[in-house]
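hey can u check if this looks right to u? its 228 residues, i copy pasted from the old doc so theres a chance i mangled smth
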Amino acid sequence: MKRLIVLSCLLAFTMAFTGQALADGKALVDSNKCGDCHQMAGPAAATIADVMKRKAPDLFYAGSKFNKEWLVGYIQNPTQLRPAGTVYRNNIKTEGDKDIVGDLPKCASKLSAGDAAAVADYLMTLTDASMAAGVFKQDKFKKARAKILMKKKEACDACHMFPGKKGKPGKGGVSCPTFAGIGARLNPDWMYSFIKHPQHWDPKVWMAKREFTDAQLQLMVNFLSSMK
């Protein structure tokens, strides 16, 4: 009986502590005005006009999309993941016969390790219940086959930048997030879901929906997950 009472007390304490930590995380999100740039509650933009107003990526499904460990590190020191900004058309300037990326807005929130962990805990509660978990199967794959599919057939590098070799600059497009570090950044189940049906997550996203087989999806996500 005494053991049950102790366990019940520990459980109650843990639940209270967890609840307080999540409340602290939300309070930090609010006090840092993350919602001024990020959409925290959804839904995603339904019109192109709304997309053009977007200042930063949506976070109302952050818990489905990101890996928590990466979030904790990123919140402490935000870096530019989209070479031409969240909405590239808002940041491209024409000079002569060349299009160049103008000055990009930077995230001003650089939190302490403790605060970053609290915010990450809160963000991980923001999920899309419709996303299937466990669909990604980590397995051996042929990098050459993945590159043929993603570069030659699908031309992913027209919009995404692939990481360079041995510290060299990456190559590819600037209108979408870089693939550098994507394996550490994103939940592979979310990558699978997004590649399969991008418009489920963002109705006006400029990434086209393709008809991929499960084998092709697994190959691409295994390849992307290897980019740590």
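Residues 6-17 have pLDDT under 50 and may be disordered.
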